[in-house]
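Researcher: Let's do a round of design. I'm pasting the structure tokens now; please hold your answer until I've finished.
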């Protein structure tokens, strides 16, 4: 039986990536963190496509796509993101990347660059993909769709803790401001805005632990089909 294609969308710091990773392990399928791909391109832009005024030169970035090789690789039981064969998994979680990734992600050229690669991975099934437009644009025919949300205060706490755990200095108030701005940009952008697919199951995990959120998703999968 063909393994399922699962789409998980939602707001920043709702645990999409880490939750998807664990579900993938439990179901024996592949996990693709699409947000990491956009962060990887953002990191490339910050290193190679900056104007003298400190802004990202988007036309230069678009012309540089042929120089970008992004891939996921398993290292010591961890799935890491490589940019041109260099592990940038920590770098893409920096404040600088967080402050610029929404600008990069709303560019049609960037989204088109990544779209075919994402669909190709899901073509044969057995994949769980998380992001902001997976169920609406990337994989509209996914077998299962979920949309995660949580309060801004709870998401701020999670993001702040994540940064500290990575050894990245952060100010909690600034983290909250950044999340609010990212929500606005992601929801209002013209190209593939963040929104819940009509057939997606909404899960508010403000008061749920990561384990409880995972169990909730697995219960839905079990109820609808015996994938788990």
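Researcher: That's everything. Go ahead.
Model: Designed sequence:
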């Amino acid at each position: 039986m063909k393994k399922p294609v699962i789409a998980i969308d939602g707001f920043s710091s709702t645990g999409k990536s880490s939750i998807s990773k664990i579900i993938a392990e439990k179901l024996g399928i592949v996990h693709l963190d699409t947000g990491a791909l956009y962060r990887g391109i953002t990191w490339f832009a910050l290193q190679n496509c900056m104007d003298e005024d400190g802004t990202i030169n988007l036309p230069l970035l678009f012309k540089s796509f042929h120089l970008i090789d992004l891939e996921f690789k398993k290292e010591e039981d961890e799935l890491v993101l490589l940019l041109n064969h260099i592990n940038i998994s920590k770098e893409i979680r920096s404040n600088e990347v967080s402050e610029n990734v929404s600008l990069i992600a709303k560019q049609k050229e960037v989204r088109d660059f990544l779209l075919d690669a994402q669909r190709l991975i899901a073509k044969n099934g057995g994949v769980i993909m998380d992001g902001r437009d997976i169920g609406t644009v990337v994989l509209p025919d996914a077998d299962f769709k979920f949309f995660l949300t949580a309060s801004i205060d709870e998401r701020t706490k999670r993001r702040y803790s994540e940064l500290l755990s990575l050894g990245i200095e952060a100010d909690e108030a600034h983290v909250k401001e950044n999340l609010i701005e990212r929500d606005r940009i992601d929801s209002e952008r013209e190209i593939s805005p963040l929104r819940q697919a009509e057939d997606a199951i909404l899960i508010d995990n403000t008061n749920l632990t990561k384990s409880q959120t995972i169990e909730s998703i697995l219960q839905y999968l079990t109820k609808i089909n015996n994938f788990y």
